[in-house]
Structures are given as C-alpha cells and as structure tokens.
Write a structure and sequence with these properties.
With about 425 residues, the protein is an alpha/beta fold. The chain has 17 helices and 15 strands. Strands 12-11-10-9-13-14-15 form a 7-stranded mixed β-sheet, sandwiched between helices. Strands 2-3-1-4 form a 4-stranded antiparallel β-sheet, covered by helices on one side. A 4-stranded antiparallel β-sheet has the order 6-7-5-8, covered by helices on one side. Helix 7 packs across helix 10. The chain starts with 15 loop residues before the first helix and ends with a helix.
C-alpha cells in the first residue's frame, strides 16, 4: 500500500436485522418426543456447525413430551465438500434426532414470523373444570371477532384450571364484550385485559370486605348477637329492592343493635371467616410489592382488626358509636357508601403514589360498582348479575387467589414464593 492511499478498514459485519429480512431464507426446525435434559442444548449445538442465526424459539413440555421449534436462517454459501449446505444441515438434524428417539421436521420459508396484529390482549380463562367444549367456544368467539390466537399456556391447574390466550388482531373492548356474553352461557370465567407493561404495573389492589375478603356479612353477625337477624334481613331486602338507599338501610340496621355490650365486637371478630385464598392473595401481592387495602360498608371495629391480622396498607369503613361500653345504634363520621368506596380508592391510590390506571378493585355488590369502574381493572367476585355485567371482568369460583391469574401470575410462581423465607 502506498503512502498516499488511506488504510482500508475491514468491512463491518452485516446487521443481524438485514440477514433476517423478509426475503431471507429461513428454516423452521421442529422437534417432538419424550422430554429429557439436554435436548435444547443438543439441537443448537448441532445447528451451530452451520453458522446459522437464531430468529425465534418456542418450547413447551406437556406431560413429559417436548415440542421445540427453532426458526433459524438457512446456511448461506455452503460448501458441499465441507458438508455445510442446507441439505447437510437437514441430514445432520434428522440423524441427531433419531439418535435420541425424537422426531424432526424442517420446513423451508422466508423471513421471520408475520407481525402480530393490532389490539393485543391477554384472555384468561378459568374453568372448574375447563372442558373441551368450553375451550372450543372461547376459541371460536375469538376468531369471530377477527382475533388471532398467538400463544396459549397454562397458569394453574388447581384450585381451578386457568389458561391464558395471547390474542392479536381485534380491539380489547370488542373482544371483552364478545367473550363476556359467551362465558356467561358456558359457565366459565373469562377476563380480557390489554397487553403491555400496564398489566404488570397494577400496584394497588382494593377489596370490598363482606362476601369478598370474608365469607360473612358483618351486620348479620352483630344482629345474631342482638337476636334481630330477621329484622336486619328484612331491611337488607328492602335495600336490594331499591326501597331504601344504602345510607338509609345502614342507619335502620345499625339502630337494631342499640344496647349491645361492646364485648360483642371481640366475639364477631372471632366469627369472621376469610374467603378461601384470601391469605394467599394478600401474601403474594405483598411479596410482589403491591399495596393492598379494603373498603367496607361494614364497620371499622372489624376492618381495623383485619388490617392488623393481614398486614394491609389501607382500611376504611363505617364506625359504630360506643358510649359507656354499649353500642348506641348509631354510626359516627362519614358514611362509606357506593360513592364513598370510589372516593376512597382514589385516596388510597394518591397516598400510594399509584395512577388509577394501575389499580385493581374487587367487589361483589352494587355498592361496589363505582369503585370497580374507577379502577384500572374491576373484578366482580361471585357478584350479583348486574355487577358482573358492568365490571371489567368476573370471577365466579369461590377462591379469591384466582385474581392473581388475571394479573398473569402462575400457580407455580405463587408456590415457589411460598417456599421461600420472607
């Protein structure tokens, strides 16, 4: 090289994206058979001899059987004498598979997977059990909306079977409406949420208490000690018929408790039964860094105890007035009603520093509706029909921890966390 000539730099390697363009020859390598350690490593060790790039990988193991798919670039500039052509790759992969009593299929094509459509959603299906008939109905409904099922995997096998469909090609709201109608007819629970980071970022969960966090109605537990269950039930029925609003019915029922000794509070606390899965739900959420709260049309004499026992971050309810060791039959302070629950959700979110879009609300009654619709995700838990129809999603199995599956958390992850010392 003469002194007048600039030094020649080595050519930069061609970018991977260019090598894997839409017109680039690619091979889909599919492996089937009995699973064992080392299959994935063995396949890619075999492919490494042909200097191919990995474009995509999918692997699933079901009841000990593996399906491994590798999308790789086809060998380029192969040398027949050196045994590095596409034909050599095919032969070598088949021989390797046969040596392990596996089956191999290799399909030629071009480029990567086609881009996923717009409107990406996560569809969580809960069945107890999950039947082939109901699964077929869900899949057909997704197709009817123009959606495509890109991936399916199981979240849990007990206490319910929970599977998640990754869907693209249709708007989340349209898909949710169609699946809600179908789910009601086939007896499964279906939740549809938009894909994206926000699903993992829902950092505040707020629950109703009566018939949600606990199995009981607290006013009825107090009424049993006052001997006025029938009268309380009658007032409750009036409220459900729309003859009384919540505040009127609350005052009417609490008035029936006048004269009860305050010692009844400890008895009621001892009688409260948590909903199955409640402890698991709260423990798991707290481990994930969520903040958890409760709002109730019941009483602070019970919710404050639940807050301490369960390690909740927030709790708000009505307060029974006590004078000289007796319940007066009145409540003091602001009433926690339907509008109050939504207001408290906003307050908790502000205190927690969490946007409303990243909150989850869970409830069962009509007085929870404002809260459910204010939250980023509203879950109707074993709710009245009017609530199920208005909420973002519904869960109709008696296990509160199934809400975790709606957040994309698997049963295995829950159990793994339980095996660790906090």
């Amino acid at each position: 090289m003469s002194a007048s000539q600039p030094p020649q730099s080595s050519p930069s390697p061609e970018p991977t994206e260019a090598r894997q363009g839409t017109g680039t020859p690619t091979l889909l390598v599919k492996i089937f058979g009995k699973d064992r350690p080392g299959i994935t490593a063995g396949l890619f060790d075999t492919l490494a001899a042909y200097a191919v790039d990995v474009v995509d990988i999918e692997q699933v193991v079901t009841r000990g059987r593996i399906v491994l798919c590798a999308l790789v670039t086809a060998p380029t500039g192969g040398n027949a004498a050196a045994g590095t052509t596409e034909g050599d790759l095919r032969s070598t992969v088949h021989s390797w598979a046969e040596s392990l009593k596996l089956q191999a299929e290799i399909i030629s094509g071009t480029g990567d997977n086609r881009p996923r459509g717009y409107g990406r959603s996560h569809v969580t299906v809960l069945g107890h059990p999950l039947t082939a008939e109901s699964t077929a109905a869900i899949a057909a409904t997704i197709t009817s909306t123009g959606g495509n099922i890109d991936r399916i995997f199981r979240l849990a096998k007990y206490p319910v079977t929970a599977v998640e469909f990754a869907v693209s090609g249709t708007a989340t709201a349209e898909l949710r409406t169609a699946l809600a109608t179908e789910a009601a007819g086939i007896g499964v629970d279906v939740a549809v949420v938009s894909a994206g980071l926000s699903r993992r970022a829902q950092r505040l969960v707020v629950m109703d208490v009566d018939s949600t966090l606990i199995q009981d109605e607290v006013i009825e537990l107090f009424a049993a000690h006052a001997g006025c269950e029938d009268k309380v039930a009658e007032v409750t029925a009036q409220a459900m018929r729309g003859e009384l609003d919540f505040e009127q019915s609350l005052h009417a029922r609490v008035a029936l408790l006048a004269g009860l000794d305050v010692s009844v509070v400890d008895k009621v606390r001892a009688e409260v039964r948590l909903t199955p899965g409640a402890r698991t739900l709260i423990r798991t959420l707290k481990r994930l860094g969520y903040q958890v709260g409760v709002v109730s049309g019941g009483f602070t004499q019970v919710t404050d105890d639940l807050k301490e026992r369960l390690g909740l971050d927030f709790a708000s309810a009505n307060t029974l007035e006590v004078v000289d060791g007796k319940l007066t039959g009145r409540v003091v302070g602001d009433i926690v009603d339907r509008a109050g629950k939504a207001r408290l959700l906003r307050s908790f979110a502000e205190q927690a520093g969490v946007p409303l879009a990243q909150t989850v609300a869970i409830g069962d009654g009509a007085n929870d509706l404002d809260m459910l619709n204010t939250a980023g995700l509203g879950v109707a838990f074993n709710a009245k029909p009017v609530v199920r129809e208005a909420a973002h999603t519904a869960v109709n199995v008696p296990f509160l921890d199934t809400v975790l599956y709606l957040l994309g958390i698997t049963r295995e992850e829950v159990e793994a966390a339980d095996g660790l010392v906090d």
